[in-house]
Each structure stands twice: as C-alpha cells, then as structure tokens.
Amino acid sequence: MQKITVDLVLRTLKKLYPNAKCSLDWTTPLELLVATILSAQCTDKRVNIVTKFLFKKYRSPQEYVRVPVSELERDIHSCGTYKMKTRAIQETCRTILRDFKGEVPRTMREMLILRGVGRKTASIVLSTAYGLIEGIPVDTHCIRLSRRLGLTRQKEQGKIETDLMKKTPRRDWAMLSHLLVAHGRSVCFARSPKCSECVFKKTCPSSTSLRPAERATSLPSRERGIQGKLHLKKKRSSPS
C-alpha cells in the first residue's frame, strides 16, 4: 500500500483545491491580525460577519485602544470568549503603537511579543499579509488531518509544526496548512468524516473505507502491534 507523504498530499490537494487560501476577510495587516485573534474557537464565517462591521468602525490601532472595553466587548461578543479577545486586541494595539510605530510587526520574534498571538496567528499574518514564510499555521484542522493521514505521530501543536516543517519545502509551509484546512472543511470532518468520498480513501491509515486488515498494515509498526493486541483480546473475550 502506498504511504501518504507530505509531497503526495501537496500534489493531490493542490489539484483538488486550486484556490485554497486564508478564508478570513481583510484589507490591511492590522485587520488580518484582529480577525485571526477573533477566530480562536470561532468559525471564520462568523468572524467575517463580525469584522464586516468592525473594520468600518475601527481603522487604526489608536481607535481600538481608545474605545471603552465594554463597547469593544459588545462589538465582538458573538465571536465567543469576548472578554479575553478584547483584552488581547487592545493590549496588542498598545504594543504596536508603543514598540512598532503603529505597524504590525514583520518577524516571528516580534509577533510573539503581542498579547494573544502564538505561532499559528503569527504564521498566518506573516505569510498572508506580508508573504513571509516563518512557520506552518497549525490549527485544529491541520492537527486532525496531519495525524489521520499519518504525516505525524506527534500530538502537541508545537511538535506537529516542527515535524511538518522538517518534511515540507519551506515555500509550501503556508499552503500545506491552507490545503489541510480546505480538505478538513470539505471532507475530513472531526465527526463522521466522508472517507468514502476522500481522495486518500485507499491509502489513509484512518480511512473507514479500508478493510480492517488493510487499515492495520497502513499503520506504523508500533500502532499495528497495539491494534493486533486489541483485536486478539476482543476475539478471546467473545462468546464461542
């Protein structure tokens, strides 16, 4: 059985999703930064609804800083965790004004100084707004699909990013994330993935379209051993 590699995923999904890109609406780096902060534990669709109004009201870091906390909280309430996100947006804008002359930073090191900004948010803003590739934006879709496809055996977000960066050409770091997100939203759902419709249904180690024996042989050796033990235990415990 053909092993799924990052190269195969890139080649296959680029054909399937030729227009894959960041789905947040924005026109300036500041807008993208704010939208990405709002997108934590919230759908991009909801964020785009909120920012359609928000970006007309707030056009600069100064305006986000001057507005009363309660007012900004009301404006972004439907994105969830609005108190935490309000604090992150206002403190981030203060830092941008104080330390970066009112401009969103252009390096990973500087981006990570901002409140509410981790490597995922920084990578999205740097690659999408500035075309600077300094990391792979690893979100929930990226975590789920990279593990299901067998691209990584890591479980932590940071370790998954490091693992994928080693296996992916730097020029494709951002695109890999966009493609995995697109496939995760279209086919490989968190619950009830459409394995029968997936282009990797015959090679994905997690595919429900594979027969049990095929699925077992597509797993790493350590996981095959675990699966075998579970199968044997189940067989022994079943009534004769």
Task: Walk me through the topology.
Blueprint: H1 6-16, H2 29-38, H3 44-57, H4 61-66, H5 69-76, H6 82-99, H7 108-111, H8 119-130, H9 140-148, H10 157-167, H11 173-186, H12 212-217, H13 221-237
Helix pairs in contact: 1-11, 2-8, 5-6, 9-11
Give a structural overview.
With 240 residues, the chain is mainly alpha-helical. The chain has one domain: Orthogonal Bundle (Endonuclease III, domain 1), CATH 1.10.340.30. 58% of the residues lie in helices and 0% in strands. It is built from 13 helices and no strands. Helix 5 packs across helix 6 and helix 9 crosses helix 11. The longest helix has 18 residues. It is elongated. About 6% of the residues have low confidence.
CATH class identity = Mainly Alpha
Structural class: mainly alpha
**CATH architectural grouping:** Orthogonal Bundle
Number of strands: 0
Low-confidence stretches: 221-235
| Main sheet makeup | none
Write out the CATH superfamily name: Hypothetical protein, domain 2
Q: Topology as H/E string?
A: HHHHHHHHHHHHH
* Overall geometry: elongated
Tally of helical segments: 13
State the CATH topology: Endonuclease III, domain 1
Number of domains: 1
| Mean residue pLDDT | 90
Distance between the termini: 34 Å
